[in-house]
Amino acid sequence: EVTIPMLKEQGINLVLSVRFDDEPVGFDSRELVEKNGMSFQQISFYKGKLADRPRAVDANAIDEISKLLSATSSSGGKVLLHCASGQRAAGALAAILVRDQGYSTEDALQYAARAGMTSKGVAAALVQYFDDLNN
Predict the structure, then answer these.
(1) How far apart (Å, rounded) are the C-alpha atoms in residues 14 and 47?
(2) pTM, whole model, 2 decimals?
(3) Which of 60, 61, 101, 113 is 20 to 30 A away from residue 68, measured at CA?
Protein backbone atom coordinates (compact mmCIF):
# COMPACT_ATOMS: atom_id res chain seq x y z
CA GLU A 1 0.00 0.00 0.00
CA VAL A 2 2.77 2.45 0.89
CA THR A 3 4.66 1.74 -2.34
CA ILE A 4 1.86 2.88 -4.64
CA PRO A 5 2.82 6.59 -4.60
CA MET A 6 6.37 5.53 -5.57
CA LEU A 7 5.04 3.81 -8.68
CA LYS A 8 3.87 7.12 -10.08
CA GLU A 9 7.30 8.60 -9.37
CA GLN A 10 8.81 5.73 -11.40
CA GLY A 11 6.61 6.65 -14.38
CA ILE A 12 4.10 3.79 -14.07
CA ASN A 13 0.87 4.58 -15.94
CA LEU A 14 -1.00 1.31 -15.44
CA VAL A 15 -1.07 -1.14 -12.56
CA LEU A 16 -2.21 -4.48 -13.93
CA SER A 17 -3.09 -7.01 -11.26
CA VAL A 18 -3.26 -10.67 -12.25
CA ARG A 19 -4.65 -11.76 -8.88
CA PHE A 20 -7.90 -13.66 -8.54
CA ASP A 21 -10.95 -11.42 -8.57
CA ASP A 22 -11.91 -12.75 -5.12
CA GLU A 23 -8.39 -12.62 -3.66
CA PRO A 24 -8.19 -10.49 -0.49
CA VAL A 25 -5.75 -7.58 -0.65
CA GLY A 26 -6.40 -5.67 2.59
CA PHE A 27 -7.09 -2.31 0.96
CA ASP A 28 -8.84 -0.98 -2.14
CA SER A 29 -6.09 -1.27 -4.75
CA ARG A 30 -8.06 0.39 -7.50
CA GLU A 31 -8.97 3.38 -5.36
CA LEU A 32 -5.44 3.96 -4.11
CA VAL A 33 -3.83 3.50 -7.54
CA GLU A 34 -6.31 5.85 -9.21
CA LYS A 35 -5.97 8.37 -6.36
CA ASN A 36 -2.27 8.48 -7.23
CA GLY A 37 -2.97 9.28 -10.89
CA MET A 38 -2.54 5.88 -12.49
CA SER A 39 -4.92 3.45 -14.16
CA PHE A 40 -5.78 0.09 -12.61
CA GLN A 41 -6.89 -3.15 -14.24
CA GLN A 42 -7.66 -6.51 -12.66
CA ILE A 43 -7.39 -9.58 -14.92
CA SER A 44 -7.01 -12.93 -13.19
CA PHE A 45 -4.18 -15.10 -14.56
CA TYR A 46 -6.08 -18.23 -13.54
CA LYS A 47 -9.58 -19.35 -14.41
CA GLY A 48 -12.12 -19.37 -11.62
CA LYS A 49 -11.79 -18.41 -8.00
CA LEU A 50 -9.04 -18.48 -5.39
CA ALA A 51 -10.27 -21.74 -3.81
CA ASP A 52 -10.58 -23.63 -7.13
CA ARG A 53 -8.30 -26.60 -7.75
CA PRO A 54 -6.70 -27.62 -10.00
CA ARG A 55 -5.75 -24.25 -11.40
CA ALA A 56 -5.50 -23.49 -15.09
CA VAL A 57 -4.20 -20.46 -16.97
CA ASP A 58 -7.06 -18.44 -18.43
CA ALA A 59 -6.26 -18.12 -22.16
CA ASN A 60 -8.73 -15.24 -22.53
CA ALA A 61 -7.00 -13.40 -19.70
CA ILE A 62 -3.62 -13.83 -21.40
CA ASP A 63 -5.14 -12.30 -24.53
CA GLU A 64 -6.50 -9.32 -22.55
CA ILE A 65 -3.24 -8.86 -20.64
CA SER A 66 -1.26 -8.95 -23.89
CA LYS A 67 -3.50 -6.32 -25.50
CA LEU A 68 -3.19 -4.00 -22.48
CA LEU A 69 0.59 -4.37 -22.33
CA SER A 70 0.90 -3.73 -26.05
CA ALA A 71 -1.42 -0.72 -26.06
CA THR A 72 0.24 0.86 -23.05
CA SER A 73 3.79 0.31 -24.27
CA SER A 74 3.00 1.50 -27.81
CA SER A 75 1.77 4.80 -26.36
CA GLY A 76 4.98 5.16 -24.34
CA GLY A 77 3.44 4.07 -21.06
CA LYS A 78 4.83 1.84 -18.36
CA VAL A 79 2.99 -1.07 -16.74
CA LEU A 80 3.45 -2.68 -13.36
CA LEU A 81 2.30 -6.28 -13.80
CA HIS A 82 1.76 -7.75 -10.36
CA CYS A 83 0.16 -10.34 -8.11
CA ALA A 84 0.74 -11.25 -4.47
CA SER A 85 4.22 -12.79 -4.80
CA GLY A 86 5.23 -12.28 -8.42
CA GLN A 87 4.57 -15.90 -9.41
CA ARG A 88 1.52 -15.28 -11.59
CA ALA A 89 2.89 -12.01 -12.97
CA ALA A 90 6.01 -13.86 -14.15
CA GLY A 91 3.77 -16.65 -15.46
CA ALA A 92 1.62 -14.21 -17.42
CA LEU A 93 4.74 -12.72 -18.96
CA ALA A 94 6.00 -16.19 -19.93
CA ALA A 95 2.65 -17.00 -21.54
CA ILE A 96 2.79 -13.81 -23.60
CA LEU A 97 6.41 -14.44 -24.62
CA VAL A 98 5.48 -17.85 -26.05
CA ARG A 99 2.15 -16.84 -27.56
CA ASP A 100 3.08 -13.46 -29.02
CA GLN A 101 6.85 -13.23 -29.22
CA GLY A 102 7.82 -16.68 -30.49
CA TYR A 103 9.82 -17.72 -27.42
CA SER A 104 10.28 -21.42 -26.88
CA THR A 105 8.56 -22.92 -23.85
CA GLU A 106 11.93 -23.55 -22.23
CA ASP A 107 13.19 -20.01 -22.80
CA ALA A 108 9.96 -18.49 -21.51
CA LEU A 109 10.03 -20.64 -18.37
CA GLN A 110 13.65 -19.64 -17.76
CA TYR A 111 12.74 -15.98 -18.24
CA ALA A 112 9.87 -16.37 -15.77
CA ALA A 113 12.20 -18.04 -13.27
CA ARG A 114 14.61 -15.10 -13.56
CA ALA A 115 11.63 -12.80 -12.99
CA GLY A 116 10.85 -14.63 -9.74
CA MET A 117 8.65 -17.58 -10.62
CA THR A 118 9.53 -20.44 -8.29
CA SER A 119 6.08 -22.03 -7.94
CA LYS A 120 5.81 -25.54 -9.35
CA GLY A 121 2.03 -25.02 -9.55
CA VAL A 122 2.35 -21.96 -11.79
CA ALA A 123 4.94 -23.73 -13.92
CA ALA A 124 2.68 -26.78 -14.30
CA ALA A 125 -0.27 -24.59 -15.29
CA LEU A 126 1.94 -22.82 -17.84
CA VAL A 127 3.13 -26.09 -19.35
CA GLN A 128 -0.51 -27.13 -19.79
CA TYR A 129 -1.29 -23.72 -21.34
CA PHE A 130 1.66 -24.13 -23.74
CA ASP A 131 0.48 -27.64 -24.66
CA ASP A 132 -3.00 -26.26 -25.36
CA LEU A 133 -1.48 -23.55 -27.60
CA ASN A 134 0.25 -26.22 -29.67
CA ASN A 135 -2.92 -28.27 -30.18
Answers:
(1) 22
(2) 0.93
(3) 113
